[in-house]
Design goal:
alpha+beta; three-stranded antiparallel sheet; three-stranded mixed sheet; 11 helices; 8 strands
């Protein structure tokens, strides 16, 4: 993965005559380096191990996702009792309460009424063009099944990707909070014990009165990286024409990478964050350079003004 610059190598944009051109050129170079870092991250053993585990988790329907969130708001990785044992070498801890979701019942299905053979016999359906053994399979109903979140289990650790920023940000984070005010964005910091957004470290909402960013309290550098990411969402994605989610995450994290790097943070984790979202489509980062560059400059300038 591409190395981050030492803190005393940060680029200053003090000359007003060449400020915009120099800033844009530097950001373009950094985005090129980010693309290389993403390629390196994708090929790393750490990412491949994470991907292998990640792909074994079932993708739940919108209805089941809501059920999981209602019963266990902090849930992040959910699987059945035996799946935890057999797939991940983990066991559900004693005393944990199950999270109940709906699982589909798959059976041969009447082409006319949609019932399984047993229910079709009792239904007022005259379809008899083909025998039941020739019917296609489909969803004929649902049944409640128990699942458990990783936080309810113990055993072999799951591979994780370290995506948070690090470094010295004791002065930067307050400056970013002040910059957010100047940008018209409200920011709230929540205690981890009161956090209700699962494994996210920050969220951005768009109420009528203006964008609202909520952060989970952490180390200043980690919060600084997340805050810039969410500020980018607030500045770029509040309208109805916002791009699909993967592209929104590319734009937001690339802005976080550029701004964090400008202020001397170690943003190498951004590469893992991005590859988890875009897979092989690295070119999408450079395709969105103008939006990334423009938003990065806006945040950098807002921070500079808040410090003056």
């Amino acid at each position: 993965m591409a190395a981050e610059p030492a803190r005393d190598e940060r680029v200053a944009f003090d000359d007003a005559d060449s400020r915009s051109d120099r800033m844009h050129s530097t950001i373009s170079d950094w985005v090129d380096e980010l693309v290389t870092a993403v390629d390196d991250a994708r090929a790393s053993d750490r990412f491949q191990a994470w991907l292998d585990v990640h792909q074994r988790f079932h993708e739940y329907s919108h209805r089941n996702t809501l059920l999981i969130a209602l019963q266990c708001p902090e849930a992040s990785k959910v699987a059945g009792y035996r799946t935890w044992q057999e797939e991940f070498d983990r066991h559900v801890q004693e005393g944990e309460s199950a999270i109940w979701i709906w699982a589909p019942l798959i059976s041969s299905q009447c082409p006319a009424c949609g019932n399984s053979p047993s229910y079709h016999d009792d239904a007022d359906c005259a379809y008899d063009d083909t025998p039941p053994e020739e019917w296609d399979e489909g969803v004929v109903g649902f049944k409640p099944v128990p699942v458990f979140d990783v936080s309810q289990t113990a055993g072999e650790p799951l591979p994780e990707l370290e995506t948070t920023a690090s470094g010295e940000a004791s002065a930067l984070f307050p400056a970013l909070l002040n910059a957010a005010v100047d940008l018209g964005i409200e920011v709230r910091v929540r205690d981890p014990d009161d956090w209700s957004h699962g494994d996210a470290n920050g969220v951005c909402a768009y109420p009528a009165e203006g964008p609202l960013v909520t952060l989970k309290e952490a180390e200043p550098a980690a919060m600084a990286g997340v805050l810039v990411h969410e500020l980018a969402h607030a500045l770029l994605h509040g309208d109805h024409d916002a791009p699909e989610r993967a592209k929104r995450e590319v734009e937001a994290e690339a802005v976080a990478y550029v701004v964090g790097r400008h202020f001397g943070l170690d943003m190498s984790g951004s590469a893992f964050y991005l590859v988890a979202w875009i897979g092989d489509e690295t070119e999408v980062i450079e395709e969105r350079l103008e939006r990334i560059s423009r938003t990065s400059e806006r945040v950098i300038e807002a921070v500079a003004e808040s410090r003056s």
